[in-house]
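ingest -> validate -> predict -> emit
validate: passed (alphabet ok, no gaps, 221 aa)
predict: started
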Amino acid sequence: MKFFSLPVLLLVAIPVSLSFLPNNIGREISAAPGMRVNRVMLFRAYPYEVRPGGSVTLEGSGFSRSLNKVYFDGSNPITATSTNGTTMAVVVPNSLPEGQYQLTVSNTLGSSENPDIKIPIKVTSAPQPGPTIKNASLSGETVTLLGEGFTVQNTVMTTLGNSSATLYSDGTTLSFRLSELSQYDQVKKQLQGNQYLFTLWIFVQNEHGTNKNPYKLDIVL
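emit:
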């Protein structure tokens, strides 16, 4: 039987020109591959749960080496630096009350604030680690994940869409069916009966956060 490879996501690294920026800014700020250098963007923050005085790593684009302000719900600004323009370590203020906060970053290029993109963290005196996927396997249409940090209410997010309902786990094992993913039927219809090799990238999200890196599982659709 012949299988075809199905391209899911194509990332293109676009050369970034700094010639239009002042000399000092051009040396200060870098962009993630494929992202514009003249725009501040914030993609995620981890870990999700952190204690006051703890450290959070931000990932994004357009960070400055010395000119960044990080805001917690638009206030409590702190200064942070980035060595590469795409990652930045931030220390949560000790005085910050417990609760959930939306993060934004600003510097000479502007602000990462975007009403459609929320980057939250939870400040708590007893932070719990987010989920971790150590192994994944497919049997029939059922994917079984082995790992840590799963809870009684989990959501799976993949390149075939998200799980249609919250998923129960005993803490180390989590299972779901491919047909339960929101884009599965649409993708199968487009394949028109052909079988394709497909890379399923998997995230698990629950009240303690999301696994830091997606798990890769190659399947046949």
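The helical segments are 23-28, 184-191.
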